[in-house]
Amino acid sequence: MKKVVLVFLALVGLMFAADNVMYPTTVKSLYQKGSDKVVGRLLPTSAVKMIKQEGNKELIQIEGYSQEGVDNAIYYAVNRRILVAGLAKSANIQVKKVKEINDKESGKKWYQVEVQLYTDGGNFSKDVESLYSKAKALYGENCSICHGLHATKEFNANQWPGVVDSMFPRTGIPKEDKYLLVQYLQKNASDMPGTNTK
């Protein structure tokens, strides 16, 4: 009977953990407790755990990967420059190293990391697929005006930001949607097998 109760409690815990995962719909400012000074930026489509609301701010947990010696950049995947959050070097933010990873591809040491910071309430979605659908539509409607649409697998994750930067001024995409587009393209790049963003 104890095993049944423990399994039930574990499943309830997993359901609660999945229920509090949200995705920013736009670039969001990050703050330390009790401060309105911006110490970083969180990028759209990055999964975060909503911890608690305090006034008009939300305490969130950000998870990802950081290269050794570069704690201020948290990435979506090891050795891929898909930024989840960028943190101010001068802010002295304590990023927790969860696990060490020796990447064979780059020959560099990475860490699985997590950090808790505050952000303004609002502009979150439970449905990341709707964000990817919006980005895919923006891409299809705006990035085939001058040339044929590049396949998302035509470039790797580290190349897509430069490609978008070179063409962005000639598109009709709103500036606030640029990072949403970049995230979509990077997460569907040639070196991102298994990513399910359609």
Could you please describe the fold and organization of this structure?
The chain has 198 residues and is an alpha+beta fold. The protein has two domains: 21-124, no CATH class; 128-187, no CATH class. It contains four helices and ten strands, in the order H-E-E-E-E-E-E-E-E-E-E-H-H-H. It has helices at 2-19, 128-142, 160-167, 178-187; strands spanning 21-24, 28-31, 38-42, 48-54, 57-67, 73-77, 80-87, 96-102, 109-120, 124-125. Strands 1, 2, 3, 4, 5, 6, 7, 8, 9 and 10 form a ten-stranded antiparallel beta sheet that branches. Helix 2 (128-142) crosses helix 4 (178-187). The longest helix has 18 residues, at 2-19. It is globular, with a radius of gyration of 18 Å. It starts with a helix and ends in an 11-residue tail after the last helix. Mean pLDDT is 90; it is low at 2-17.
List the helices and strands and how they pair.
Blueprint (H helix, E strand, L loop, with lengths): L1 H18 L1 E4 L3 E4 L6 E5 L5 E7 L2 E11 L5 E5 L2 E8 L8 E7 L6 E12 L3 E2 L2 H15 L17 H8 L10 H10 L11
Antiparallel strand pairs: 1-4, 1-10, 2-3, 2-9, 3-7, 4-5, 5-9, 6-7, 8-9
Helix pairs in contact: 2-4
